[in-house]
Design goal:
38% of the residues lie in helices and 21% in strands. It has helices spanning 7-13, 28-34, 53-64, 79-87, 101-110, 137-140, 154-158, 160-164, 175-181, 191-206, 218-227, 237-253, 270-280, 325-339, and strands spanning 18-23, 41-45, 69-73, 92-95, 146-151, 170-173, 210-214, 231-236, 259-266, 286-289, 293-297, 303-308, 312-319, 348-349. The longest helix has 17 residues, at 237-253. It is elongated and about 95 Å long. The model has no long low-confidence stretch (mean pLDDT 97).
Length: 351
């Protein structure tokens, strides 16, 4: 009886696009929920998520019982760590930050048994062999291991041809780290970065290897699939959860009334102070104003509307249902009093 077939590796070799999702919640229950979503593959992240081998294995198990295929990203491409992941039954692995052909060649040797590689022979202890229930595991395992490596910086791009010639099954381009290395940290959509990513993907595809990427930009996803990318991650469970739960909280809080208070100040310079306050906050808030009226809206929900006449400045301070209206009043008053230091300026707030 041979080693279990890696359907993921077979699909990539056949050029069939495989759509996946990053799993970073580091929890088997969350992974089991994600496994109901019908992605082709789910990547359990051991590099940036708080996982170790045991938590990775727990998640791999629940994904294996679904219609999705588990892939695991190691924290680093160390031979001893690769051996542990493979013995635990992880057939599809992704190794981050590969920068040279020699490094990639060492990784290929790490996933193969002697005489071709250096993987330690301990399958009798291993989940991978069903604890020695697969008699031909040692002779057939190599062909069912899918080794994917990440190229994430300029050194990796420069060595891409050597990496592709090393025997890896595919190369995954990491736009975020590449953007940082290229001087555009936090901006993977920068034209220079995108051009480098697309060029690298074309080279990978032209070599006959599987090309992969994680991007949540629908336009970039379309470009990648049109190029021939075969393992594409379109989302991250942590991002999905955070975005959804925040939107849910916003919607729930919107059911409650906002808080507001009005005030007036007698002054001949109302228009001047209105414009000073709006200009002062224009770099951090949404601001609109003219000689007679101004409005400032901060992202956290604090808002103020100012109306100026020849002798009076009217103020309407507002905040969300859970905002600190008293604090917001003090902030507005402190700024206006500072601007009006040449006169006895006082706001009478309605109680």
């Amino acid at each position: 009886m041979p080693a279990p077939k890696s359907t993921f590796k077979a699909a990539l070799a056949a050029g069939q696009p495989q759509i996946g999702c990053w799993i970073g919640m580091a929890d088997a229950y969350a992974a089991e929920i994600a496994a109901t979503a019908r992605f082709d593959w789910l990547l359990v992240d051991g590099e940036h998520a708080p996982n170790d081998l045991r938590t990775v294995l727990e998640q791999v198990r629940v994904i294996e019982s679904s219609g999705s295929v588990p892939v695991a990203r190691l924290p680093i491409g160390e031979t001893w760590m690769i051996k542990q992941y493979l013995d635990a039954g992880v057939q599809n692995i992704l190794v981050p930050m590969v920068e040279s052909g020699d490094q990639a060649h060492d990784l290929v040797r790490a996933v193969q048994y002697p005489p071709h590689g250096v993987r330690g022979v301990g399958s009798a202890l291993a989940r991978a062999s069903h604890f020695a229930a697969i008699p031909d595991y040692l002779k057939t395992a190599d062909d069912q291991i899918c080794l994917l490596v990440q190229v994430e910086n300029r050194a990796g791009l420069d060595a891409l041809d050597d990496i592709l010639a090393s025997g890896v099954d595919g190369v995954f381009i990491g736009p975020s780290d590449l953007a940082a290395d290229m001087g555009h940290i936090g901006n993977a959509a920068h034209p220079e970065v995108e051009a480098a990513v697309l060029n690298a993907l074309k080279r990978i595809i032209a070599s006959g290897k599987a090309a992969g990427i994680l991007t949540m930009d629908p336009a970039m996803q379309r470009k990648c699939l049109d190029l021939g990318v075969t393992f594409l991650a379109t989302d991250i469970d942590v991002v999905l959860f955070a975005k959804t739960v925040r939107a849910s909280a916003d919607a729930a809080l919107a059911l409650l009334p906002d808080q507001s208070v009005s005030g007036t100040a007698q002054t001949d310079a109302a228009s001047k102070y209105l414009k000073q306050l709006c200009k002062h906050w224009s770099h951090k808030a949404e601001v609109s104003f003219d000689d007679n009226q101004g409005r400032v809206a901060f992202p956290d929900g604090d808002r103020v509307t100012l109306t100026a006449t020849a002798e009076r400045l009217s103020i309407e301070a507002e905040t969300g249902p859970r905002g600190d209206l008293a604090r917001w009043q003090k902030v507005i008053e402190a700024h206006l009093v500072r601007f009006a230091f040449r006169e006895d300026f006082r706001i009478d707030w309605a109680r």
